[in-house]
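Thread: "does anyone have the structure for this chain?"

Original post by V.I.:
We have the sequence but no experimental structure in hand. Need at least a predicted one for the grant figures.
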Amino acid sequence: MRILGIDPGYAIVGFGAVDYTANRFQTLQYGAITTASHTAFEDRLAEIYDDMNQLLSNVQPDALAMETLFYTTNQKTVIAVAEARGVLLLAARRARVPIFEYTPLQVKQSVSGYGRAPKKQVQEMTKRLLHLDAVPKPDDTADALAMAICHAYSFRSRQYGMAKTKRQQMGYE
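Reply from O.Q.:
Generated one for you, tokens below.
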């Protein structure tokens, strides 16, 4: 299964694409979609949308895994991230890529085995699980790869894979 993990944002959108087959990962590509701070917000959203469409076209994922939005203390930031997240979800939906969402706790639990693991521990485990030489930078990229790992290990991922196989056998796909 090819999984595209996304860490949503409006300044930096982290992404990481992996293939997961027979309990093994192959890292395909990772990086970040970035927008300049001096650019009008709606233009930043357009850049994110266009870059996401290009990424989806290049990667051709079977699933997209994205972090659920959680509210911290800055309302302005959370609203802007929610708007960027909406653009990312729209691009995935238009590309007909199934979307799966996970909480930070689920990602930490899945990657490190402990739902309250510190960020550095999750990043180190991501590096190890994907056999990378270093923790990917920026942090948003490492978070996106962790999101992809979480989806690979999730029960919903296996359910989706079984349903997709069944649809293919029946000639629906």
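V.I.: this helps a lot. The radius of gyration is 16 Å.
O.Q.: and Residues 109 and 115 are 4 Å apart (CA to CA).
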